[in-house]
Amino acid sequence: MLSQSDNELLTKVGPGTPMGELLRRFWIPGLLEEEVPTPDCPPVRLRLLGEDLVAYRDTDGRVGILDNYCPHRRASLFFGRNEEGGLRCVYHGWKFDADGSCVDMPSEPAESNFRDKVRVTAYPAVARGGIVWLYMGPPDLQPEPPAFEWSLLPEGQRVAIKRLEECNWAQAVEGGIDSSHISFLHRNLADLNPDAPKTLHQKYAAGDRSPSFTIKPTDYGFMVGARRNAEEGHQYWRVTQFLTPFYTMIPPVLVRDTDSRNMGYGGHAWVPIDDDNTWTWNLSASPHRPYEESRRGGGLEEALDAKYRPLRNIDNDYELDREMQRSVNYTGIVGINTQDRAVQESMGRVVDRTAEHLGTTDAAVIAFRRRLMRMALALQEGIEPAEASHGDWYRVRSASAVLPTGVPFDVGAAALLTPSSR
Amino acid sequence: MLSQSDNELLTKVGPGTPMGELLRRFWIPGLLEEEVPTPDCPPVRLRLLGEDLVAYRDTDGRVGILDNYCPHRRASLFFGRNEEGGLRCVYHGWKFDADGSCVDMPSEPAESNFRDKVRVTAYPAVARGGIVWLYMGPPDLQPEPPAFEWSLLPEGQRVAIKRLEECNWAQAVEGGIDSSHISFLHRNLADLNPDAPKTLHQKYAAGDRSPSFTIKPTDYGFMVGARRNAEEGHQYWRVTQFLTPFYTMIPPVLVRDTDSRNMGYGGHAWVPIDDDNTWTWNLSASPHRPYEESRRGGGLEEALDAKYRPLRNIDNDYELDREMQRSVNYTGIVGINTQDRAVQESMGRVVDRTAEHLGTTDAAVIAFRRRLMRMALALQEGIEPAEASHGDWYRVRSASAVLPTGVPFDVGAAALLTPSSR
Amino acid sequence: MLSQSDNELLTKVGPGTPMGELLRRFWIPGLLEEEVPTPDCPPVRLRLLGEDLVAYRDTDGRVGILDNYCPHRRASLFFGRNEEGGLRCVYHGWKFDADGSCVDMPSEPAESNFRDKVRVTAYPAVARGGIVWLYMGPPDLQPEPPAFEWSLLPEGQRVAIKRLEECNWAQAVEGGIDSSHISFLHRNLADLNPDAPKTLHQKYAAGDRSPSFTIKPTDYGFMVGARRNAEEGHQYWRVTQFLTPFYTMIPPVLVRDTDSRNMGYGGHAWVPIDDDNTWTWNLSASPHRPYEESRRGGGLEEALDAKYRPLRNIDNDYELDREMQRSVNYTGIVGINTQDRAVQESMGRVVDRTAEHLGTTDAAVIAFRRRLMRMALALQEGIEPAEASHGDWYRVRSASAVLPTGVPFDVGAAALLTPSSR
């Protein structure tokens, strides 16, 4: 449970808010490269942390991220002409490059130096892992982007998908680090059939529905170890990574044995559009082999409209089918991501944390809030977040493993928890 | 005319408001039994007095009314599984019975007693007259439900219909107790034709368009006697009942003689969804014989969408037909209920009572406001409303009668005004 | 750049606001005569300066403009019966004439004099130039309507078109007096082709894209002279009129020579619906000959829905075509009015003038704001606007002319600037 003021501290991300200022210290996944595919392609709208922006790719292939509003009379640059190294406002022809400099101001007399006095807000952008990242913080503090394994793999060995989630970012993150819901929300009712074929994960998860959780703080965030009973003298561990400010890595699915090195590593980023909306990213790495298309099914992908809003959404109750809920799966909703989104959005745009009742399985949720609120308050007192400036810290993996009873997960699974373990 | 603060006192119904607290002392018609037809059927959303709720029928056929938000992390219980005596949240499997007790908490360790510490807000519910009623007030003050005649008749001799009205409840009630609009809003222009066949009611109403009104306070509310001239030495009385907090009973239509005992008795309840929306109920009793289908026409029923919103609504100006308005009826709108709803909604979500001008025909409107505001203020001072705890007071009827000139309506029509008059 | 408080002073128009009070001193174009075409036709809704009104034409052909809300219980008079010299509320039959007097109150007893005590707010209305004008100010200050040339011409020699613009009125006016955007926003890319046939205007505009502007204050507002280089020893002048509070006259297009007397004179009015919406009028005069249909094309007309909202609107990005933007015109949007509306609406409902950067071409924008804010503040101190009471001042024209270098435009083009110059 949080006080109302702490709930606002945690959730509000606009300019000048403590959490908004903290998030602006980090590089942020902004849009898919496919949204600005080619030089001089049409600009696109972009809203992040409550700011209306426009993204475009210039003649040289560089991506620019500008304030949506022309600094002259505030016409939208979305309607602009993307041409010859800059984005030109259609109202009076003022043209801006990706640094925000005004490079042409044809409406002013030739002798005027007004052009040199005008800039548009521009945020640095880099492309990595199929994503355009941007940095919205103080220029003199601009760090390196985080070195996520998936962000550095070549095309074909990584996947980045985004979609709209119609609620605040923090309750989405809380869904992502809450491992205990796996046994319920995403449950397939066939797991009740003792004769149905099962993965090792399904076998252990069905055998022990209330795992115990261990939080292990790290430089970049924390690890959540979920422990279940396994065979005599062994314990089954699933290790979720939380990386500040809004990333998770989901444990790989244990199929046949304790070796997860052949598998992909999936995760999420929950990027605030504003206080009430979030871009939910699926970000996956397959470091040892190409992703097959078949691997990309399993509920991870959702049909989207042209604005990346899922077709299964709150307006149609996520196509909830009560008969399916009775006989096939726990929710009657198709798709793991849709199931997650449904419960997160069902709490309202910003969940009322003054009225919740957290149990022992909510340890990760509590750890997330404390970490982020502490960082935000520290920044208010001038203490910069070290996490933002150590992108190398983010080169980690999640893990699933069966370990001898009593061995701490961070020791027993140490070799699995970084990409260097190949 | 009311001051702005009195207008807010009268209209606001959320938790903690004076009027909201008063209304929570009464049993409230919540939903149709048909909405939760069978044991373990899908739960449905319900919003009343500004609170988001979910209703379901459990395995034993009992209806539960719970807070929409699971007390754990506030996922919506609408998405829940209705199974084996309770509604189970799909997020972590917490299950609640109709009393609000948590009867299963599978995400917590077996040894935990956290389950006993958690409850969800649950409101008592009973089924009567095809309606699920609920009580949202202090448990120790829970009264008996009101003994409306229609609520105690067997199926086939009663009708309950609900539909959405997109304005505050109080202006809807004011429309219901305002007998004088009958001569205008609901007028059929054929009554101008002296040769057209008429009911006795039509004959008297056409002959005297400005009836005089007498308010007679009662234990449960008040009666409104509307007096018109009738044959020499006689007066035509229509007696409308207002029963606190939001019920009316409409006088039966006098067809051929002064005996209304063979007729049905219709009425309304206007139940606040929130400050801006209302469930408008038509509630009718036919104590002496089954309702024929033909009786249910006459403008009382409206085509509704799946969420009980009328198809004739403010978005399409209620399908107003100006040619019909010129030649057929007063409004150009089909249906008595639609005509009422049109004018009530046309005032805006909450009518600005600081700008009205009440005439002599508005005596009942004034009496309603005074009664409700007095009760709400009294409750603020600790005086409980006696009306809420005397459900037997609600066993009354409306009446229409031709009485000798000078006889008070409550004396002359006394035998018609209670069901005991059979 | 304006302070936030000045931006609110400029933009807010509701009852009691300084700008709202100023605008209520002027006659206002309210609706097209075609909206209330015949005696006793259906009433129509009308919203102006934040007030909800209803307009109707009575049995004698007189147009009445009444408060939307019946003074009795505030039912909407839009649903009223327009009959026998007045508009009758359908709730209780109260009837009002175009002066706002209650001429029938059938729900009250015959002996009542309540009828004489009740009035509905009514605004004086006159028809001129195909438009119903209304005056919403203090009755004792009611002036003559402005004597615009177009408003006094016979049908066939004038055009009045209105459509919805979804932003504040002031940024629309600012678009109208901003002559410098012509060279950009409305540019046809064919003007880059030296071999393409050109009007004189196109030739001069292409040759000099940063005209210099001279503001010349007048009794009724100001003139904006835009000067461009022309042939040796000559200058090309375009003179835009701004007439308080919200009118412009656009310079006629110079086709073949310096004589614009054979041409039509077009202009705009931007009439506030409320703080967030505007009726944008196109108002044109053809004093010397009938308008041919062919003259009415050229981007001045837009397809509208039944409520006068353009089909090209912000919901569909004005049907922006990026390929057209690359190869045909500057915006990729069809139609001069649509192009204007697109940039004005793209600023948001009320442009944030605290964040703009005005250049030398914005002299007219600055002059507009100063004039209107000064008038509004003067009125607060009791100084009535002389502009409102001198309708004869509005009998002026815009002009286009090639003048010898050094001759001031108001001198050189004086003969063109009033209708008396025939």
Keywords for this entry:
homotrimer; 422 residues; alpha+beta; 8-stranded antiparallel β-sheet; 4-stranded antiparallel β-sheet; 17% helix
Please provide a written account of the structure:
3 copies of one chain form a homotrimer. Chain A is of the alpha+beta class. Chain A is built from 9 helices and 19 strands. Chain A has helices at 4-11, 18-23, 149-152, 169-176, 200-207, 322-327, 336-346, 363-380, 409-412, and strands at residues 27-32, 44-48, 51-57, 63-67, 81-82, 87-88, 95-96, 102-104, 122-123, 125-128, 131-135, 158-165, 212-217, 221-229, 234-243, 247-249, 265-274, 277-285, 399-404. In chain A, strands 12, 13, 14, 15, 16, 17, 18 and 19 form an 8-stranded antiparallel beta sheet that branches. Chain A has a 4-stranded antiparallel beta sheet with strand order 2-3-4-9, with no helix packed on it. Chain A has a 4-stranded antiparallel beta sheet with strand order 5-6-7-8, with no helix packed on it. In chain A, a hairpin with a 6-residue loop joins strand 6 (87-88) and strand 7 (95-96). The radius of gyration of chain A is 23 Å and the shape is elongated. The mean pLDDT of chain A is 92. Chain A binds chain B through residues 174, 178, 180-181, 183-185, 209-210, 212, 317, 320, 322, 325, 330-331, 333, 339, 342-344, 346-348, 351-353, 355-362, 365, and chain B through 42, 69, 71-76, 78-79, 81, 90-93, 105-110, 112, 114, 117-118.
